[in-house]
Specification:
about 45% strand; 17 strands; five-stranded mixed sheet; about 190 residues; seven-stranded mixed sheet; mainly beta; about 0% helix
């Protein structure tokens, strides 16, 4: 609650007072961070043929004006009824994402996150791309992470390849297996061995 009192308003001897019910302090901006599905990248899903993408985590911090990377400058009351639904996009393009909207209940002390964000490409033969993860809420005016810290992740279209093997049925047989990603052809993914 805010309560303001002034005993002598503009030297007029007029006494002015007023109260304001609890309200919302809008953050100045958001920062976003990402935890990749793999060490330095995330596998995408595909629409044709349909397959699920690898989930990754996006964390959104509501920040005060002049804030820094620490949690001490978060807008702590950006939570519950004082928060707005916040959409995660690739620098404003929200197409191809799943589970990319943070509900008001996802924010605690000005920090919200989704651990199940996925991204889908049209076909498995899609070149790698880097997503810039932008957060925008549904308030007026919109609060955004544009121009501030925005996490990125490389999206790769990948597959698991199981090779052929021949040998005696009386002996253990090793079958070659490798993780691959598309880059104008299927290449060994040395970052996922």
């Amino acid at each position: 609650d805010l309560n303001a009192n002034l005993a002598n308003y503009l030297c007029s001897a007029l006494s002015v007072s007023g109260t304001q019910a609890p309200g919302r302090f809008q953050p100045a901006y958001f920062d976003t961070a990402v935890t990749h599905g793999c060490s330095t990248f995330t596998y995408a899903g595909a629409t044709a043929p349909a397959r699920t993408g690898q989930p990754f985590t996006v964390t959104v911090k509501a920040k005060r004006f002049g804030g820094d990377a620490t949690d001490a400058t978060n807008t702590a009351n950006y939570v519950g009824a004082y928060a707005y639904a916040t959409t995660i996009s690739n620098a404003v393009v929200a197409a191809n994402f799943t589970n990319n909207v943070l509900a008001v209940a996802d924010f605690v002390n000005g920090v919200g996150s989704s651990t199940t964000v996925t991204y889908t490409v049209p076909t498995p033969q899609t070149l790698s791309a880097t997503l810039t993860l932008r957060a925008e809420d549904s308030d007026t005016p919109v609060v955004s992470s544009s121009g501030h810290t925005e996490g990125t992740t490389e999206i790769r279209s990948g597959r698991a390849k199981l090779g052929n093997a021949h040998g005696s049925e009386l002996l253990p047989l090793s079958i070659p297996f490798r993780a691959e990603y598309w880059n104008s052809g299927w290449l060994l993914n040395s970052a996922d061995i």
